[in-house]
Design goal:
The protein has two helices and no strands. It is mainly alpha-helical and 64 residues long. The protein has a domain at 21-63.
Length: 64
């Protein structure tokens, strides 16, 4: 039984990555596969908001 493995070579150029200087530069990052990065940023923001809300709630409960 012979196994045939196909090797695909893909080149990449790290010098073409965008430098984020404004909100408009975020769009090329999305198209270059930055969806995962945007999800991480969104999750971080959501977690920050949740932790702030929980902290505020605990402060109010401790005051009573």
């Amino acid at each position: 039984m012979k196994s045939y493995n196909q090797i695909i070579i893909a080149s990449s150029n790290t010098n073409s990555l965008p430098i984020l200087r404004s909100a408009d530069s975020l769009i090329p990052l999305i198209f270059n596969g930055g969806i995962a990065i945007l999800i991480i940023i969104a999750m971080s923001y959501f977690t920050k908001v949740q932790l702030k809300s929980i902290t505020d709630l605990l402060k109010k409960l401790n005051e009573k």
